[in-house]
């Protein structure tokens, strides 16, 4: 069913409301028969998208509300989360940063709601990977991540004025599964490799480039 503007060729063009055969509904702008411009799409499942469209695909700025209570607000390209955006998970965790091809990719910040801890660093295809910092209530870890876990040399910095240098040792890596449409929050207490302390020193400046990259 469609109620709205049409062009001289009879195509949906301008502003209109539509009910699709699968029970979904759309209200917004059309261009030559296709959803293009601003609009709101309500899924029969309870999900909702409001934002920009281009030729029937989410493209530009938009907000997607998922059935599990999670929400994504940010950039879309060709129906994919891509660019910069914020995802609020069903458990209250948040990720703010770069996206590519529907996954966390690039630089971003993940905040764990329950503990208040946050991961600030690089992501590759939805997984923590590269130089990063984990900030806890009264201390923080600086190092590198590989396949979602800390690996290689790094250090813990404590608020009372010292730091512990060492390295994470991991015997085997396990690849995660492909992500579903709804983003899955990260584990609150991820399984981590073994930390091997080397020395305790006064506070020193540090950048990820100071430590050698671990060999996979």
How does this structure look, described?
The chain is mostly beta strands and 216 residues long. It has two domains: 90 residues, Histone H3 K4-specific methyltransferase SET7/9 N-terminal domain (Single Sheet), CATH 2.20.110.10; 79 residues, no CATH class. It has no helices and 17 strands. It starts with a strand and ends in a 15-residue tail after the last strand.
Features:
216 residues; mainly beta; Histone H3 K4-specific methyltransferase SET7/9 N-terminal domain; 2 domains; 17-stranded antiparallel beta sheet
Summarize this structure briefly.
The chain has 216 residues and is mostly beta strands.
Shape: elongated
Return Rg in Å. 22 Å
Low-pLDDT stretches: none
CATH class of the largest domain: Mainly Beta
The overall pLDDT average reads: 88
Number of strands: 17
Summarize the helix and strand pattern as letters: EEEEEEEEEEEEEEEEE
CATH topology of the largest domain: Histone H3 K4-specific methyltransferase SET7/9 N-terminal domain
| Helix percentage range | under 10%
Number of domains as seen in the coordinates: 2
Major sheet characteristics: 17 strands, antiparallel
Structural class: mainly beta
């Amino acid at each position: 069913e469609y109620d709205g503007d049409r062009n001289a060729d009879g195509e949906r063009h301008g502003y209109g409301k539509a009910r699709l055969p699968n029970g979904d509904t759309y209200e917004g702008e059309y261009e030559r028969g296709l959803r293009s411009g601003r609009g709101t799409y309500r899924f029969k499942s309870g999900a909702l998208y409001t934002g920009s469209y281009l030729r029937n695909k989410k493209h530009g700025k938009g907000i997607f509300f998922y059935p599990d209570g999670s929400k994504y607000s940010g950039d879309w390209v060709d129906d994919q989360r891509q660019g910069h955006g914020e995802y609020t998970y069903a458990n209250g965790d948040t990720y703010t940063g770069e996206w590519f091809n529907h996954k966390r990719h690039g630089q971003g910040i993940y905040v764990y709601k329950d503990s208040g801890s946050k991961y600030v660093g690089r992501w590759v295809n939805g997984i923590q990977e590269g130089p990063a910092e984990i900030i806890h209530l009264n201390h923080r870890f600086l190092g590198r991540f590989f396949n979602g876990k800390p690996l290689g040399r790094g250090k813990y910095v404590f608020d009372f004025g010292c730091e512990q240098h060492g390295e994470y040792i991991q015997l085997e890596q396990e690849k995660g599964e492909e992500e579903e449409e709804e983003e899955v929050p990260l584990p609150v207490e991820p399984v981590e490799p073994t930390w091997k302390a080397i020395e305790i020193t006064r506070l020193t400046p540090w950048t990820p480039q100071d430590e050698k990259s671990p060999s996979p």
